[in-house]
Amino acid sequence: MNDRYPVVVSGVTKGMGRALALRFAELGHPVSGCGRSADAVGELRDRLGPGHVVEAVDVTDAAAVARWSRTTVAEIGVPRLVVANAGAIHAQRPVWEVDPAVFSDIMRVSVEGVHTMAHAFLPLMLESGGSFVAVSSGWGRTPREFLAAYSAAKFAVEGYVGAVAKEVPAHVKVAAVAPDSAVDTEMLATCLPDEHHAYPGPQEWARAAVDYLLHRLPQEPSGGGLVFPAP
């Protein structure tokens, strides 16, 4: 069996998603990724080169995600690993200072985006098997004050994954995996502006994360509460 199978990652235009896409491609996996910034999508498409798919897709747009899934299958095949990584956050502030539109955007990207990914890609794996991973957070297990919206979104992801893991056949794994420590990304700088540099960067993190996803995740139980190892 070919161990260089297709991998799908959402939110690949920056941070952890971009680092994951580059690392999977470096190891020889055909990658299909999406992001909202057309310019950043074009840059990554050029960086990855032929044999990969990078599309400008908003994960809150179910029809667009469905089209992307069809393009993925047509160009690189049915994925055996799907990573729902796209997320959103805001600067720390009391919940009564969080505009409802900001709260709604965080929930839509971080929760609805996981569902659009599952709705489009899980059916592809029901016969062939594979793993569907939602990137979670420690703040989705222990809530963080002044980040109530983000904590709520990741708690929802954990619950969603726990339910879906009971719905799929045994040869399909559905898991919520959180980084063991924070990762120094633009999102982290938004909410921890004074300490984000104390954490590993996305490229360093992705080496350990990809190794985990490829080699250790298949032995893990389905459901929430899983952790990417520290780099």
Automatic annotation (TrEMBL):
<keyword id="KW-0560">Oxidoreductase</keyword>
<dbReference type="Pfam" id="PF00106">
    <property type="entry name" value="adh_short"/>
</dbReference>
<protein>
    <submittedName>
        <fullName>SDR family oxidoreductase</fullName>
        <ecNumber>1.-.-.-</ecNumber>
    </submittedName>
</protein>
<dbReference type="InterPro" id="IPR002347">
    <property type="entry name" value="SDR_fam"/>
</dbReference>
<comment type="similarity">
    <text>Belongs to the short-chain dehydrogenases/reductases (SDR) family.</text>
</comment>
<dbReference type="InterPro" id="IPR036291">
    <property type="entry name" value="NAD(P)-bd_dom_sf"/>
</dbReference>
<dbReference type="InterPro" id="IPR053241">
    <property type="entry name" value="NADPH_pterin_aldehyde_rdct"/>
</dbReference>
<dbReference type="GO" id="GO:0016491">
    <property type="term" value="F:oxidoreductase activity"/>
</dbReference>
<dbReference type="InterPro" id="IPR020904">
    <property type="entry name" value="Sc_DH/Rdtase_CS"/>
</dbReference>
